[in-house]
Amino acid sequence: MLMLLMLFTSFMGIKAQDMNVTGRVTDDATGLPVESASIIIKGIGRGVATNANGSFSITVSKGSTLAISSLGYDKKEVVVTEGSVNVSLTKQNNNLSEVVVVGYGTQKRANLTGSVVQLNNEALIKRQVSSASQVLQGLAPGVTVQQQSGRPGADGASIRIRGEGSILGNSNPLVIIDGLQLPTGTGLDALNNLDPNAIESVTVLKDAASTAIYGNRASAGVILVKTKRATKKGLQVSYNNFFTNQSFTALPERVGAIDHMELSNIAYLNQFPTGTALPFSISLIDKYKTTPANNFDIINTDWEKEIFTNNGFMQNHNVQLMSGGERVNIFSSVTFFDQQGLIQNNSFKKYDIRINPEFKLSEKLTLNGAFGYTNNTTINPSTGSAEFIIRQAIGLPAIGGGRYGPGQFGTAAQSNNRNPIAMAEATGNSNTEGNTLLTRVALNYRPIKGLELDASWGREKRNPYTKTFQKNADIFTPNLVTGQYDKTSIWPGITRLNETWRNDLYQVYSGQASYSFKVKSDHSFKVLVGAQQELTTQYFFGASREGFINPNQPFLNLGSTNIQNNAGANELALVGFFGRLNYGFKEKYLFEVNARRDGSSRFSQAEDKQWGNFGSASAAWIFSKEKFFDGISKYISFGKLRGSFGGNGNQNIGSNYVFDAFYQQSNYGAITPNINGTNPYFNNLNTLGVAILQFANPELSWETSQQWNIGLDVSFAKHFTLTADVYNRSLKNMIIPRALPASAGGLSDPFINAGSMDNRGWELALNYKTKLSKWGFDATFMLSDVKNKVTGLVAGLPFIGGGSTRTQPGYALNSYYGLQALGYFADSNDIKASPSVYGFGWSTNAAVGPKPGDLKYADIGGVDGKPDGKIDDNDRTFIGNNFPRYEYSINLNISYQNFDLNIFGQGVGKRENFLSGTGAVPFLATDYIPSLLGIHKDYWTPQNTNATFPRLVAGGGSYTNNFRASNWFIKSAAFFRFKNVNLGYNVPASVLSRVKISGVRVFVSGQNLFTITKAWNGFDPEINNANGEFYPVMRTYTAGFNVTF
Amino acid sequence: MKKIIYLPILLLLIITGGCQKYLDRKPLDAFASTTFLINQDEMDQNLNGVYAASLWTFPNNTPLLFAIEASTDIGIRRDQNADDFIALGEGAFFINNALVNSSWSQGYRLVQRANQHLLGIQKGKDNVSSQYFGRNKAEVLVLRAWAYFHLLYMFGDLPYYKTPPTIDEVLSATKTPVATIVADLYKDLDEAVAGFDAANAQPILGNGRVNKAVALGLKAKLALLIKDYATAATATNAVITSLNYNLNPSYQNLFSIAGQVSNNGREILFNQTYPTDASTPENWMVWITVPRFITSSQSSHFPSQALVDKFEGKDGLRIDASAVYDPLTPRLNRDNRLKWTISMNGDTLLYNVQASANGNYIQPKEKTIFNLYSNVRRRFNWTTGVFDNVTGGNTDWIGNTGGGIQWAVGAAGSRGGVGYIWRKYVDSTQIHQLTKTGYILMRYADILLMNAEAKIELNQIDASVVSAINLVRTRAGQPAIVAGSQEQMRQIVRRERVVEFAGEGLRLFDLRRWNIYEKANSGPVVGAAFDPLVAPATPVFDANDIPDYTASINQRIRFRNQVRSNNNAKFKLWPIPQFEIDVNPTGIKQNPSW
User: How far is CA B292 from the centre of its chain?
Assistant: First the structure.
């Protein structure tokens, strides 16, 4: 619209008459120029627009009134009295006239009938983060954004819109970038590839009214991303950067060598009081106490310190070029991003190029393009994940030899010599190079007023290539006789190269037509119809070899043994037809109907399970436009009530051919030949065979989701806006694997439509915005809750899941399921008087049965559901879940003259987290000989009966009843976190005008600066299930600047 | 304006027209069920897939049927896990015993693959010759019947599927009685025989495939299970009169890879084979029986005294009657099959061990004299050519207390069984843990003895019965028998089966159909003399040659104080895996006493 206005005004002929007025339009809050503001001579209708500097020039007769307006600003009128007019515009408190991106089109915010949140560029660039998904955290109520890892290249956040959308299938929202609908698996990747500087807006579609038009793809909500376009005439260049120091937010505290030895002895004596030999002799411990650690015979390795040796430095550089002309507009953005991890061989590097050209082929025909190319390189250690290396750094005993010299690693006190320092630094790495090309070309034809025809073609091509090379590190042992370190071993002992290459191609064709018209001015209509088809094809192959005699030449042909290769391919086709009707009466009563018919190749054509119909209806009433409201409109300037109901489908179940019992080849594994093998050995020769290995279910069909939503939008008391929503999102026919008994033939379990669940929630967003001379103030508070409850499973299937979680009607998905701990056994009489624990009662044998200081559990069930005097699996019950509840955020923007400050805090009011594994169990020997954590030092003794942890036992204890899943290890993971503080300074234009720079902003910021939580010390409350294997999220300090030329 | 509206409609029509085809996607890296199995190559490959499901093992690469021997009176498995295997012989194990579950699931996996195959090949029936089709189908019918036969004698009445079941069919299955299933399988096996005949299939000799003789032998086994002796006699007679098969003149050659490849006499009818052109899998039957004082060994399965004592003296008489049996050196003057089946104190052991460094005692074979009674190993020195006395490292001597495990009368546990080692299948031409010798599933001697048994039960004790038994006995060097009463003949043929087939997985089937499982599995599990100078009293035998060791109980090595309980109804049948009942409690009832 602005463009048209500009074009229109530029063609106007201007007669030389009366006086020439020049002026400048600025934002009264920031002082920055307002571009493309329209200057209209009142009563005449003629006008001009401001240029990039906010300047304008117009010829008027003296005394005329100029009406100055710009989208998003309050209108202002000025009477011309002299030749120079400077106007400062005030930003509108509400964004009602803002154009919001919606499914297959746009809509004025005031006219929305669904639940939609749009975030604009300025909100997105306040935080300097490594993955764009992170910046959405806390900005949209009802959108749960959780960052579960700080690992470079894998630190993107998970996004859930209004709760969990599926048991097995996809719960990720559909991501659409510049109209290109991305495949489910790669949508968030594509979002993370974007530099927030290049994003114009992100729109989140939450309710069924707004998502139903996307049918089968959108049951988990939709994220619409629009990258920038060139909107100004001429060339504009900007450069943005930031430099960041990263460190971890939380890490469990370790124990030193002496603690390790003394506590090991205590644990041993707890189990074997008559044992002949302590694990560590008193004389050795005394020697450690009197001799400083020398890394030779007195070893006190701080594994965390030895492993976190990378600097964690992160930098980002982004250059944008915008070139606007009458026929051609081009926006381009180039980003370089580099992020180092905290351990060696652990980094992420990205080059990203965006080009968005727009060609006006004629007044009616426009060609739009959006091209994005991303090349990224992720490096990880090859012999174990970064998370596993960190878990060892947390869990290994300090007495193990770490590093003796360059390239000289100790045994880590492990019989297999596996040393995490060597794993991180010296045993090779895994290098994944991702190449992604996004392409979208769209033709837009407007033959007559109101009618728009669009045809588009889009594709995403991804070619990740991974090369993993494993080589040997040298393991040394102190030789007490010679005083030297002897090379005693190598680890892991095998050199291996593995390479895989993928070719994933996604293509989408779509066409649509929309026509908007009015009948008798009061009735406005908009009709949209369209169709699209999508095809995903995936292909990969991989090869590996072992036996590389030169570790510096990792090339396949140089490997000699264990030559292997494999490949795989699959495809997925989707077809959809969609339509939408909008009707508005006097812009007061608004109605919208959406319909979609979708077909998916994931279901059986023979059984006619491929097609599904989805739709929604919604209505809104702008009550503030009613006559009866006139009296109070100065208090409540805008009010709208919304309601919607609709449904979506979910066909994304990960597997493309569940309907067909296809035949596969599957060679025998090395150890268990008969599980899925298909080769026999006639005449003692390996003979190729095929067999059906999966239990097909041709009856399988869509998961469906239905949602109602009632919402309220109010602008009141001049400075406030409030948005409130209540909804229920109901999932049905959810797909789960149905476990069948072995008599079914040992095929992998069939998928069935089985489960239903509800996500019921509400959302609140309150904004306050004001301006006092040089001060600007903008605060947003958000609060939302969603409660997940499984409402049904198929008959004959009371629950699904195992281990410590269970999904059962009446409870949240994957609820924690375990015993109820009552406390510790006080003494032997207490044990004798209590139920036996998994068959163990009181015994004088120290190695058997519960002892004082072991956990005592509640006897709440038995074989027939009644307490039976025995503690066993029948006494398990629901003990919590880790869904975040009552998520809230506070976002403050304060400006003073050229300074701007953003303070952003975010929190979760209620959440449970179950500590397990290395986190919960001292001396847990799973895959290495372990130590214990600092928090475990608070263990039960007769003198410390209020301890956090039970009495110590060795090796996790052959008697492990203490560490069965129980509520004892569930703790609140509620938190409030100062997510971001960002202080910026805009260099005044007066300083810049001399050097032909139109804007400079310098800033410093910090992320995750501090956290208030009661969660386990050392475990980040944002990370689920703290079992000790995680990559901590980062605390960052950043500085950077933006320059616009 | 209206014309323009037609444009998107036209576009919609174009897309719609191609829709159904566009959405019809089939697997790319696997073969779709709708288009596969339409020619001979495809049918061959899927037939191979069915065979692959017949290679039953437990645990790991141990042949399943060998593992099952430990649930009978002739075998022991050393296992620390009380809810797993140790209790098998006691009939006291838990319902979800891993071996039982594994037997059930492996049986049904083969059933399922066979059913899928029989359904799938119908698509391509017209594209191949009727001879090929009939023969292909015949093999699968035999394999499916093979699976059902084992499930029947292990579990009794079964969910019986002849086509791949749907989810609902699985969840609402009921049990079909044994007799009904057997009668139905007769028809399958008759069709298989006709299929082999029509294809003029030549006998396939021990290479891992089934043939007409296997079909007939299997039919006989099914018939014996339901005491249909006439059918059993007829079926086995058809194999015998075909004159295609004979015994291998050398009993021990049956159990070496060279002997199996040449298969003299075509004795091996059906064989679970292993690849010599691939590193895995191996036949772990040898590895898991090699005693622990041999390099890289993993002994966990052992024979029992009850088995040892069933081998006659060389004079053809049971040990309690034999004039040549010496209780102090029981290894001498016995049926030759004893030394080919079991190693005992004083026997010379020869194993090919995997060793990177060759020493005087390993080149790479290791030869040693089994010494149960002192911590001295008599090891053959390959350099000097004499046996050296090497003290220490004899983990399997009865004084060993390593790991808190002690050999003793009534000890808590023993590491080496009860003083005996399986010898069958040991082949010193192969490294013991990499043995590729096939595990024999059916051989001609079994046909002969089943034929004899059926005729004895029919009381048609003619010359052919005596001849069948004597063919087996004389091959092993035992004296011929003469015809006797039905009871005498029954005892002879039953004893012949146990000594001929020990370790070959037939004992559980035999005990169940003879209805003597409870009797055979009773009392403490005993072994060799605890004191080499004190010969334990010779046991008393009953009419089924089941020994009673009451008199010698305190003179023998005992296995973990294990006492196998008499008259336990749980011996009748194994329990149906619990999950079958959990998901279908109305359709599938647990077996009695479980």
Answer: 24
* Residue A1038: C-alpha distances to residues A242, A338, A672, A900, A984 (Å): 6, 14, 53, 16, 12
Beta bridge partners of A976: A907, A1012
Distance from chain centroid for Cα A250:
20
pLDDT digits (tens, 9 = 90+) for B222-257: 999 999 999 999 999 999 999 889 999 999 999 999
Dihedral angle of Cα A127, A132, A135, A140, to the nearest 10 degrees: 150
Residue B48 to residue A689, Cβ atoms within 8 A: yes
Do A567 and B34 count as a contact with CB atoms less than 8 A apart? no
Does the distance separating the beta carbons of A681 and B274 come in below 8 Å? yes
- Contact A696/A683 with Cβ under 8 angstroms? no
pLDDT value at residue A1: 33
Which chain B positions have a beta carbon within 8 Å of A681's beta carbon?
55, 208, 273-275, 278
- Name the residue among B52, B112, B278 with its Cβ closest to that of A746: B112
Which of A567, A577, A677 lies at the smallest CB-CB distance from B29? A567
Q: What is the pLDDT of residue B410?
A: 37
How high does pLDDT run on average in chain B? 88
- Residue A669: pLDDT over 60: no
Residue A509 pLDDT > 80, yes or no?
A: yes
Distance CA B466, CA A115 (A): 91
Residue of B nearest to A672 (CA): B60
Reduced to 3 states (helix: H, G, I; strand: E, B; else coil), residue B70 is: helix
Chain B interface, mutation test: which of A456, A651, A692, A699, most B Cβ atoms within 10 Å?
Answer: A692
User: Do residue B116 and residue A687 have CB atoms under 8 angstroms apart?
Assistant: no
Q: In chain A, what residues touch B49 (CB-CB under 8 Å)? A: 663, 678, 689-691
> Which residues in chain A have their CB less than 8 angstroms from residue B257's CB?
684
| Paired residues of B547 in beta bridges | B541
pLDDT interval class at A11 (50, 70, 90): very low
Find the length of chain A.
Answer: 1045
Radius of gyration of chain A (CA): 33
Residues of B in contact with A740 (CB under 8 A): 167, 170-171, 583
Give the H or E element holding residue B51.
helix B40-52
Percentage of chain A with pLDDT > 70? 95
Contacts of A383 (CB under 8 A, 6+ apart): A423, A427, A428, A470, A492
Tens digit of pLDDT for each residue in A272-315? 776 667 889 999 999 999 999 999 999 999 999 999 999 899 99
Report ipTM for this prediction.
Answer: 0.92
pLDDT > 70 in chain B, percent: 88
